[in-house]
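tool_log.txt
---
The assistant was asked to compare two proteins side by side. It first ran the structure predictor on the initial sequence, then on the second. Raw inputs and outputs are pasted verbatim so the downstream comparison step can read them without reformatting.
(1)
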Amino acid sequence: MINWFPGHMHSARQQISGHMPKIDLVIEVLDARLPAASSNSLLTELRGAKPCIKVLNKSDLADPKVTSEWIRYFDGGVKGVKSLAINATRKSDVTRLIRLSRSLVPHRGGPGKPLRIMIVGIPNVGKSTLINTLCGRKIARVGDKPAITRSSQQVDLRNGILLFDTPGVLAPNLENRRGAMCLAATGAIGDNAMDHERIAAFAGDFLLVRYPRQIVERYKLKELPENGELLLEEVGRRRGCLAAGGVVDRQRAAELLLHDLQAGRLGRLSMETLTDTAEDSSG
């Protein structure tokens, strides 16, 4: 179903490990729609006891109630770990992030003692966008495809903060099937590594249960289909994704549904709650 771990990501681990001894603070960028699935246990292992901010990016696309639950969870957990929900394109949000960063490492940031921050995260969570907003100019490449950043870089913000950027890292084994499907549905896994129809049907099943009203409104449905497979058929018919003979082109319908989800056209929604994560762990 999903088989994706490009070779360049192995070197990313080595780059992170090599820089970590001289880092004061780690900012882990997560997708606010799926904070657990978009995290990486390897990053937790590599940073050790260093302070960390879990940045729930794309919060403008996520269900605000669910995001609040995740913020409370992260802030009440491990010592030295804080969280912040942001939209990485907003300067005001990034200003809040800088303020929080300084508060966690108050002894750094003065003359000759820059606050050294490493920004890490799996592909396509908005890491490069955050770096560009922090810098006030385009430093990191930004795109809608995973794994845009390929080599590490160091950026002096000239405000007492030194940034270390590294390539996106995705765990080599996606053992949690639901988490892997959510990553694929939200665009963290390259198109060539996934079955669009299968992922879209999974997303459809999820949306029909959690956000039925948004599905009805987006696709002007008179009634809800029974499952994600039938939703694809309905979306295909209503959006003109038809092949010869009026047969629904399921590939096109699947791509349309996934693009709508990823672009926030279905409204603010979260693919993962604390309850989902607990059930996955116990299962």
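(2)
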Amino acid sequence: MKAFRTCRNGSFLCALGVCLVAGVQPSHALAADAVVVDRVAVRFVSPETGGSARPRFLTSRELGFYARCEASLEGVSGEGDGIYPERYVRAATDRLVARQMLAQLLIQRGSEPPDLPSLVLEARAELADRLGGASVLEESLQREGLEDQELLALLRDQVRAAWYLDKAVSPILAVSEDSLREAFRVMAHPFRSLKFEDARLRVRRWLATERMRAAELEFLQAARTRIKVVAVMTPPPMSLQPSPLPVAR
């Protein structure tokens, strides 16, 4: 199984993971004994985020954290210390790219979600629920060397993206009582041990996020032809080498 590694000292993606993100030869290399706190792992360009004049960047710590989250949501732990199958790097990249694009579209409309700081804290609480609790979230942040303020900045993009999708694409945030009860009954959510009335607010928040996760990937798929994603660094070599994969453009 192909995999990627996030190193605990500096917590950056090793060669396989970065190449898997973009499927291209990175443009810079590191010496095998280099010690790096963090680096830009991916550069992407899209019309929504300003085109080639304003490229956007994803750091290795951001990708490491979100790849860890994607793996955790499927009940997958790292193979050893921070090694994950390739699909989680892909999933993390897709979500971060989509959220930046959607967030920028909302900003271009000259609007913001009401009470953005509170919504960001709700998104953080929802992520903690999704991962298995506040302690799991804190551990994941620590293992990837990501500060809480950095997470909140990423979650601001998530909230803006969800708000844009809800207002401009398809309603995803308003959850009816019937939908809520049906989701609690049939969907695989983290609140099985709770009674419906005790879990109502958390299930509502979880279901809205589920809808957002599906909608953002639909948006990204439709936008593939106008996005360019490039790996911009190679960390120290590892024994397992990646095979070339197509670039999303």
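---
observation on (2): The chain is about 55% helix and 10% strand. The two ends are 26 Å apart (CA to CA).
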